[in-house]
Specification:
This protein has helices spanning 7-19, 23-52, 65-69, 128-131, 148-159, 165-176, 203-212, and strands at 58-64, 96-102, 109-111, 190-191, 194-195. The chain is mostly helical. Among the domains are: 7-35, no CATH class; 59-175, no CATH class. α2 (23-52) packs across α5 (148-159).
Length: 216
Amino acid sequence: CFYAHSLVELQVWMMQSKTGITHEAIVQESKKYWQNLDSATHGAQILSNQVKHGSLNLKMKFVCAQCWRNGQVSEPDKNRKYCSAKARHPWTRDRRVMLVMSNERRKWNTIRPLPAKKQAPLQFDLCNHIASGKKCLYVGNCSFAHSQEEREMWTYMKENGIQDMEQLYEMWLKSQKPEKGEDPAPQANKENGKQIHMPTDYAEVTVSQRSSGYPE
């Protein structure tokens, strides 16, 4: 048969045709890749554990997709009808994109919708092109994750039966709200329940006493 029997086989054939690499060399490069990946997954495992326990230790927001493609970060206006940019692009589901930033990498990454498949894979893997620091060459919607954050979020969505990005975002917003009874405002100038008086608290009293002639 002259046709590829899987996407992986097609990618291997394309790589061999372009570079002339042998099967043995591919195996050696694959071993090196997985060794490097194992050492780099510690940070991703931290994020994974936090996600599984319901504590999303990351930032998440929706931005205008058209502005994002142009290098701008535009969130919705107060009425959530248009983006906040001067162009005022319509704020609809198909015109916005989700961005996620983890504390480990401190970089905004786009999160694409969960791949539509009849049977979800046992685990999501990183795209080989992205893992090697290149741009994804797949024509269409690549079903491999394009970042560690995307891989973890897809895994979370699959394990919790979440198909909609809006639903995921609402869950994250609820997780960011302080618990009941917790005072979000810091207790300024208080210690052990007692008010701490600063020297500046008496400044106006001292000045008024001197100007009126009363002893201090």
